[in-house]
Specification:
With 89 residues, the chain is of the alpha+beta class. It has one domain. The protein is built from three helices and two strands; from the N terminus they run H-E-E-H-H. It has a two-stranded antiparallel ribbon with strand order 1-2. Strand 1 and strand 2 form a beta hairpin. It is elongated, with a radius of gyration of 21 Å. The protein starts with 22 loop residues before the first helix and ends with a helix.
Length: 89
């Protein structure tokens, strides 16, 4: 059984509140240029969690539902497509 290796390194907050993740941290987390990270603050701890675009899009869709920006339900897929064409979306 493989155990997780925990890596701790100090990083400096720069003038525009930017930070650079050390290469070893990026490699261990599997990060690539363009990846999205969710920043979360709990007490005095800041955590960065890799997120996918699907999770971001799902969050936006759920916000639309919460605010009542939805259509339907539709009886058929054709009804849904017809509504999309009618509303220009």
């Amino acid at each position: 059984m493989q155990t997780k290796r925990f890596l701790r390194q100090l990083i400096r907050v720069k003038t525009k509140y930017q930070v650079t993740l050390p290469a070893q941290v990026r490699r261990q987390a599997g990060l690539r240029v363009g990846d999205l990270l969710e920043a979360k603050v709990e007490g005095d701890t800041i955590s960065l969690t890799p997120m996918s675009v699907v999770e971001r899009e799902l969050a936006l869709a759920l916000e639309d539902v919460r605010l009542g920006r939805t259509k339907g339900p539709f009886k058929t897929a054709e009804d849904a497509i017809r509504n999309l064409r009618r509303t220009g979306r």
